[in-house]
Each structure stands twice: as C-alpha cells, then as structure tokens.
TrEMBL record:
Domain of life of the organism encoding this protein: Bacteria
Name listed for the protein in its UniProt record: DNA-binding transcriptional regulator YafY
One Pfam assignment: HTH_11
Domain HTH deoR-type: 4-63
PROSITE patterns, per database record: HTH_DEOR_2, WYL
GO-annotated molecular function: DNA binding; DNA-binding transcription factor activity
Lineage, highest ranks first: Bacteria, Bacillati, Actinomycetota, Actinomycetes, Pseudonocardiales
InterPro entries: CBASS_pafABC_assoc_protein (IPR051534), DeoR_HTH (IPR001034), HTH_11 (IPR013196), PafC-like (IPR028349), WCX_dom (IPR057727), WH-like_DNA-bd_sf (IPR036388), WH_DNA-bd_sf (IPR036390), WYL_dom (IPR026881)
Record keywords, A-Z: DNA-binding, Transcription, Transcription regulation
Length: 320
C-alpha cells in the first residue's frame, strides 16, 4: 500500500499530465477506490493545492491554472518510495503520464536526504532489463521491490513468503542476485538456499521480506536476464498467436523479445513468430505498437481484436 504522502504526490503527478481526469480514471491509475481519490483531493486542497472540480456530464478533476504548488512534507522512507514510484511510472507509461515523471523525479532527487539517495542508487544498480517495451508491469509493493533490490546490491540473505502460480504459500530463504523487469512483470533472480539452485520469483508474489544475514561471498554470479528469459519462455502464457512479421529474423528478434516470442525465418524479409501474452487483446495492442507490417495467422480472436482496434483508430464502424 502507498503511504498517504506518497499517494498524494503521485496523484499530483498524474493530474499534471493532462487537462482533466475523471475520478474513475484517477482511481484506476492509482489502484485505489474513487472514495480514496475524493479524500485525497480534499487533503490536497487543505494543503493549498489548486485542484478544481471539472464540470461536464461525468465530472472530474484538474489543476487550477496558475495555482501555486506548495511542497509536500515527506520523511526518508516516503521520499524513497515516491522516487521509486516515479521511476516506475516513467518506465511503464513513457508516452502518457509518465512523461512528467522524470522531471518530478529530478526535482525530488535533489532534495533527497543522503540515506534515501543512497538507497535509490542501489535500487537503480540492481535493476536489469529483459526485452522491455513500454507496457504495463505486474503491480508490486514498492517496499518489497526496494528491499529486494537493496539486498541484491549489499549481498544479503533474505527470507520471504511466496505464493506460486497455484496459490500455494511457502517460506523461501534466498540470496538475491538481481531484479529483472520485462514487458509484463518484475522478477527476482536468487540462489535458493534450501533447493541449492538458482530460482526466478515473480516480485508481485513476494511478501514480508526480512534480511537474515550476509550472503556467501563465494557464490558465483549468473546471467540474471538469461535466466528470466528462459523461465518465461518455458512457462505457458494464457494466449498465443501465430504472426507473420514482414521483417528479417534479426529485426524481428529486436522488436519482439525472447521473453514473449519464438521466431523462425520464412525468407530474407519475413519471419513467423509465436507470440505469447496475457490475453488476445493484449497481443493485438502489442502488435499494433510495433510499427511494422504483420499478418495474424491465428487465432481468430487475436485477428478480430486487431481489426476492431484499427477500425476504432480510423474512426470506422464495423458493419452489422
């Protein structure tokens, strides 16, 4: 859960990215109930922020023109959590509200106390990328992400509760190696002390992280990104699509990372790809954002989502 101050600053950041937001949109973006949004708006007004109620059939909120923006008071932990949230917002939505996040982060970072600034630096150094594109990541707790990234940098052992994909809970004792973010999720690569092998954990399934001591300094390093890519490509996705990409094999591999697709050449300028995703709609949206010619060979559900989205973008209506 976000702290109150952290959530207020994130609300301000989102409000500043476009002229008007509905209460439902703000609630969805912040992951809270609309009642929480209304309470936070009242709190911002009490602090002197010019948040106005927008008129219209659906109502909404906007920042008042020329309003003076007084600073929020954040303690060390809240400042660090806010900085991490702004960085995640910039990563996840670079073409939307995330565009304002780097500027806000730059201002916040200059005022971070030394302990929080050092922790943010450890967080940055502990993050690796595996075929990242600007898509939504699994929602993770900022404190959990910070704790795991910190343990990765300081070479500490940790213990946490973990829920696997079947919902079974276990307690795991590990030595974290690195945090890896992909197009879909955040993952922890760690040496499992009980199983005596490397394991890949979804960070959104981790809870109650506690440092238990220093890691073994003799433990060998590993290619964390490669482990995550291997784990993802061998784990079933909810939906797959067969797609013909009108690009060479090397170009296609650069566009569609190994974390979500397998490829085979079908000529010098054409590649056949098996693309996995959360659902048919997600795959359709992902393919349309590639910016290259393609043809969906199947299933029909993915093809229909592509056609419907193109019709929507072109302002057309499907014939009855």
């Amino acid at each position: 859960m976000l702290s109150a101050s952290h959530r207020l600053l994130q609300l301000l950041t989102v409000l500043s990215t476009r002229p008007e937001w509905s209460g439902a949109e703000l609630a969805d973006r912040l992951g809270v109930h609309e009642r929480t949004v209304r309470r936070d708006v009242v709190k911002l007004r009490e602090l002197g922020y010019g948040v106005e109620t927008a008129t219209g059939p659906f109502g909404g909120y906007r920042l008042g023109t020329g309003s003076r923006m007084p600073p929020l008071s954040l303690d060390d932990d809240e400042a660090l959590a806010t900085a991490i949230a702004l960085r995640r917002l910039a990563w996840s939505h670079p073409d939307g509200e995330g565009r304002a996040a780097p500027a806000a982060l730059s201002k916040l970072r200059r005022s971070l106390p030394p302990r929080a600034a050092e922790a943010l630096g450890r967080f940055d150094l502990a993050i690796a990328e595996a075929g990242v594109r600007p898509d939504a990541h699994g929602e993770v707790d900022p404190d959990t992400l910070t704790a795991l990234a910190g343990a990765s940098r300081t070479r500490d052992r940790v213990r946490f509760r973990y829920h696997d994909r079947r919902g079974a809970e276990s307690t795991r004792a590990v030595e974290p190696e690195q945090i890896v973010r992909t197009a879909h999720r955040w993952y922890l690569v760690a040496w499992d002390l009980d199983r005596r092998d490397w394991r890949v954990f979804r960070v959104d399934r981790v809870a109650a992280v506690a440092v238990t001591g220093p890691a073994d300094p003799r433990r060998r390093e590993v290619d964390a990104t490669a482990l995550v890519e291997e784990a993802i490509t061998t784990t079933p996705y909810a939906t797959y699509a067969e797609v013909e990409i009108h690009r060479s094999l090397d170009e296609t591999r650069a566009l569609l990372p190994a974390t979500i697709a397998r490829h085979r050449a079908d000529g010098p300028d054409r590649t056949l790809s098996t693309v996995g995703g959360l659902d048919a709609r997600w795959i359709a949206e992902f393919l349309l954002r590639l910016g290259v010619p393609f043809r969906v060979l199947g299933p029909d559900e993915v093809r229909e989502h592509v056609v419907a989205r193109l019709e929507e973008l072109l302002g057309l209506q499907r014939n009855p």
